[in-house]
Design a protein that fits this description.
This protein has 11 helices and 13 strands. Strand 5, helix 7 and strand 6 form a beta-alpha-beta unit. The chain is an alpha/beta fold. Helix 2 runs antiparallel to helix 3 and helix 3 crosses helix 8. It is globular, with a radius of gyration of 21 Å. About 35% of the residues lie in helices and about 15% in strands. The two termini are about 30 Å apart.
Length: about 375
């Protein structure tokens, strides 16, 4: 992933292509495709294949635990991050007078469960200032009634990375709230310290280079009693086939309660392979490789007639650089014509730099941008 030879071997589809859209869709390495083929072979065994599925399930949980800094009993897998957030909303059992804090740099999955009329809690909006979330703006929103503060560690919108220790310290000082953190745009790309986070959620088809169909959940044991989802199903129940199963449903505690039905085993195979691949390279190595590429991208964009919306502050920069231009669609088309892949939406262009990108591809991106503008 970090050298030309491993890039060619592990990512043959990237030959001749400059791919900067990992924040939307990661490109799987060949080992993930091998894992999907292995799932197919195991599925051909029918019921005998379930023993093999179970082994991969446990291995995937161990890989996820390693990535989150938790134990395998503190992590679980569901179908996507949106499902995880909806299950979290069920677990909280919010009441009239409760408060939830969301922010305006977050992805809809983490914000919208609390915005439906059926949710009795009051929602407060933590607004970005100069494209960054400032903790001093969060503090006035906190109160003894705050039940949840939810945010992404790295914003999908502009790549802003929150100051997590400072945010957690403020929440603990001013409220009894739980802290929910979406690490979709961070997991597999930057080193993580998730100490004192109550709920951790991630998608699987982006920076960890797996497939769609997975939601990665972490609930430390200290928060398990407050984050146990009272959902129907069977896989997550203690008594799904017990003698009292038609009298009551007893969910497993914490993260295990988020795995409500038959696991999406093809995705589980891919998740296990993707996380193992990232671990074999090393997130620290990926980050050290990418930092100068991100820095170069920002410095060169500042020389162009675009509006940079990624805060140029080292502590707030991760793997995404975003900028705006009134002629964004034309810029996007010019890049795509040269097989340079970025994201474009509503005048915003987003560049996501991962371990399979290199200095030559960044220079190519900047060169085409400069000529187009």
């Amino acid at each position: 992933m970090l050298t030309e030879s491993t890039r060619q071997a592990d990512f043959p589809s990237l030959s001749g292509k400059s791919y900067f859209n990992t924040a939307a869709e990661g490109i799987p390495p060949t080992v993930v495709l091998d894992a999907l083929r292995q799932y197919g072979q195991d599925k051909l065994l029918g019921m005998d294949g379930r023993d093999r599925h179970a082994v991969v399930w446990e291995n995937a949980k161990q890989q996820l635990a390693n990535a989150y800094g938790l134990s395998p009993n503190e992590v679980g897998l569901c179908s996507c991050s949106s499902e995880a957030y909806n299950l979290a909303a069920m677990a909280l059992q919010l009441r009239e007078g409760d408060e939830v804090v969301i922010n305006d740099l977050d992805f809809p999955a983490g914000s919208t469960p609390w915005l439906h009329p059926s949710c009795p809690a009051t929602v407060k909006l933590w607004r970005a200032r100069d494209w960054a979330l400032r903790v001093e703006d969060l503090v006035p929103l906190l109160s003894p009634r705050t039940r949840l503060v939810t945010s992404s560690l790295v914003s999908f919108f502009n790549g802003h990375q929150i100051n997590l220790p400072e945010m957690i310290a403020a929440v603990r000082r001013h409220s009894p709230s739980l802290v929910s953190l979406d690490v979709t745009q961070a997991l597999g790309r930057i080193p993580l310290d998730l100490s004192d986070v109550d709920l951790i959620i991630s998608s699987t088809h982006k920076w960890i280079l797996a497939t769609h169909g997975g939601g990665l959940v972490g609930v430390p044991s200290a928060s398990a009693d407050r984050l146990t989802a009272p959902a129907g199903g069977w896989f997550h129940l203690e008594n799904a086939f017990g003698s009292e199963r038609f009298q009551r449903a007893i969910p497993k505690s914490g993260a295990a309660s988020f795995s409500v039905g038959m696991p999406n085993y093809p995705a589980v195979y891919a998740i296990e392979a993707g996380l193992k691949y990232i671990e074999s390279i090393g997130v620290q190595a990926i980050d050290m490789h990418c930092k100068p590429l991100v820095r170069r991208c920002i410095d060169e964009l500042k020389k162009l007639p675009v509006r940079l919306i990624t805060p140029d502050e080292p502590e707030h920069i991760a793997g995404i650089v975003a900028f705006m231009h009134p002629d964004a669609e034309r810029i996007y088309a010019a890049l795509h014509e040269q097989d340079i892949h970025v994201m474009c939406h509503a005048g915003r262009l987003r560049v996501a730099i991962h371990g399979y990108n290199d200095e030559a591809s960044v220079d190519r991106l900047i060169d085409v941008l400069r000529k187009t503008l």
